[in-house]
Amino acid sequence: MKFKRIVFSVLLVFFFMFSIPVFAQDVVTNEKAKITIGYAPFGMLETSVAKVKQFHKKYLPNVEVEWFFGLYSPHLVNNWIAGKLDVSYLGDMPAIMLQSKVKNTRWVSNGVSPRGEVLAIFVNNNSKAKTLKDLEGKSLATGIGSAQHRMIEAIMKKENIKFNLVNQSPEVALSNLEAGKVDAFGYWPPYIEMVKYKKVGRAIMADAVKYEPEVNATWPLVVSEAFNKKNPKIVEGLVRADIDLHKYIQANLDEASQIVFKELGEKIPLPVIKASLASYRYHDSIDKDAIQTVQMSVDFMKSKGYIKEGFDPAAWADPSYVNKILSGKK
Amino acid sequence: MDSRTYCVSGITFERPSAFARTFSIKNLLKVISIGSLFVIWTLLVHFKVYRFGFLPGPAEVLVWGIEWVQNKVFWIDLVFTFARVWVGVVAACLIAIPMGLMIGWNKIFADFTFPMVEILRPIPGIAYIPVAIMFLPWEEASTAFICFIGAFFPIIINTIIGVKSIDQSYFRAAQCLGSTPRQIFWHVVVPGSLPYISSGAALGMGIGWMASVAGEMISGQYGLGYRIWESYTLIRYPLIVVGMIVIGVLGLASSSFIRYVTKRVVPWRKDMTESLDESITKK
To answer: Is A143–B233 a contact, with Cβ atoms under 8 angstroms apart?
Structure first.
């Protein structure tokens, strides 16, 4: 009996001796800091999960994160310019606008990589339109300067359809679609699923997969250059947390949906959230494909006059963290 | 007496020339006042006082303004907003003035309708956006409705106060002279409350312009308020300021027009209907 107890104690000591370094090796830095991360959960649902699950704690145990809420990315961009943010999840177009204006941000991780599934075009239930061609000369509501705006323009150009762009917030456009005041509606998740769920419109283009790669986008995690230089370990921890977030959502869609549902105050129906999260795609590496996608967005913004100066996405990107993490280096 | 002179209590005064009137001390002070605003603005932005460094300076705003004015879109924006605000405010006048007169004059009507007005009054125009979209059949009507809501309440409240402030002796005198209620309404209530109605309309016009930014969030294509909102999402701060200035100037011009018209219609209460700046700077 005594012998068994001794063996058990020795094993326990060995377990702790070996397990502590195993746990500890996840920690990127022990430095203490308080940082603020911008997020717009109604546009980027996955950021709610990041907030609740706090994946960064594993890598940055002493970093306290305050989450800065924005209804949409442009609100975060404006707050960034006002000096209230150094780290933020953003839609690609707002991120490009920000970089074009302040010229001191770095793209360190891909928050979400929207593909063709994150765009659908709807018409009013009573509309006679059956195909995209029927939208010739009609009004189509979307968010001006959004990734979906670029996607819609790319599709319409390809199909040689001239349409009338109406810039509205998705909530307003949803009411207008229902009231039949706009002919068509093309927004991002969760509003795509919301239209289906509430049955306020009929899809004439259920997704835009066949238009890839023109309809691809990437919603980056952006940090300021100064923050990046001063806190590389913290940035690395955040990028690791972002990659963990992607893995978690892909593996636990139901649980992630529940988190988002609760985090958004149960304002968006659970099936809508689940379908929306399922439509997201994640592309961890900042590779040639991702850079080309951002280049398309930069060119679009410049051609529309939304930014005065373009820039080189390859120079804007800092893939060092992602490359290091994906190559398995510590 | 010729056109260059005027007479008060038998004394003839010489009328100042147009040049003297234009370059009077009063006007000079007004110009200096507006100029100072721009100087202060420039200095605050240039020296980045507090958080002014984040804002565009007057020079940058001017450059954007010149560029925008030369663009056809500016004029389309202007016409759209002007029409929406005026339609909204005129509709508000057409409903609020008769309603306010009736509330002020008739107690039964007041007891029946005024609580409704008081419940609806604190609701901000922006909260009416979903209602406006669903309730009104045309998009333009929805946008004008937000301006209507903004203008309606100051006009009705001023009209009610206008009726309530009429000297009771006028009513008694009219009754002694055998006037019917209808005659009292048209010859005492309406003219007696006109100065307040005018002030309410001018106030309503100002608020109508303020509401245009919220209203044009629905419009999605044109309008000064829409352009301000769009500029916010596209991070074009100078254009936001240009839009603000244009709305301010047009709002001032619209309110001034109402006061000018009322001064002609109600000359006996000129002191009440003349512009605020004249009232507070008058000796």
So the answer is: yes
Is the separation of the CB atoms in A92 and A220 below 8 Å? yes
Contacts of B220 in chain A (CB under 8 A): 141, 166-168, 172-173, 176, 182
Q: Are A215 and A146 in contact (CB under 8 A)?
A: no
- List the Cα angle B80/B85/B87 in 5-degree steps: 95
Question: Quick check: A156 and A163 in contact, CB under 8 A?
Answer: yes
Per the structure block, which two tokens stand in for B82? 């002007």
Distance CA B223, CA B80 (A): 5
CA atoms within 13 A on the CB side of A182: 32
Report the predicted TM-score, pTM, of the whole model to 2 decimal places: 0.78
What's the first-to-final CA gap in chain B, in angstroms?
Answer: 27
What's the farthest any 2 CA atoms get from each other in chain A?
88
From the CA of A92, how many Å to the nearest CA of chain B? 13
Share of chain B above pLDDT 70, in %: 91
pLDDT in tens, A88-109: 999 999 999 999 999 999 999 9
Nearest CB to A78 within list B133, B221, B232: B232
- Taking the C-alpha atoms of residue B268 and residue B253, their distance in angstroms, rounded to an integer, is 23
Write the burial class of residue B185 (CB in 10 Å: 0-12 exposed, 13-18 middle, 19+ buried).
middle
Quick one: pLDDT band at residue A270, thresholds 50, 70, 90?
A: very high
Amino acid sitting at position A47 = T
- The answer to whether residue A303 neighbours chain B at the CB level (below 8 Å) is no
- Which two tokens mark B219? 């419009």
Q: What is the mean pLDDT of chain B?
A: 87
CA dist A73 and A99 (Å) reads: 13
Cα A64 to chain centroid, rounded: 22
Q: How far apart are CA B158 and CA B205, in angstroms?
A: 13
Which CA distances in Å does B54 have to A106, A185, A273, B236?
21, 35, 37, 12
Say how many C-beta atoms besides its own lie within 10 A of residue A242's C-beta.
Answer: 27
Q: What are the backbone dihedrals phi and psi of residue B137, each rounded to the nearest 5 degrees, phi first?
A: -75, -30
Neighbours of B13 (CB within 10 A): 10
Kindly state the helix (H) or strand (E) to which residue A275 belongs, with its residue range.
helix A270-279
Q: What sign for the dihedral angle of Cα B125, B130, B136, B139?
A: positive
The number of beta carbons lying within 10 Å of the beta carbon of residue B245 is 14
**Which residue in A71, A176, A304, A309 has the most chain B C-beta atoms within 10 A of its own C-beta, making it the best mutation to test that interface?**
A176
Q: A-B interface: how many C-beta pairs under 8 angstroms?
A: 59
Beta strands in chain B (DSSP E): 5-8, 11-14
Cis amide bond preceding A190, omega within 30: yes
**ipTM entry:** 0.72
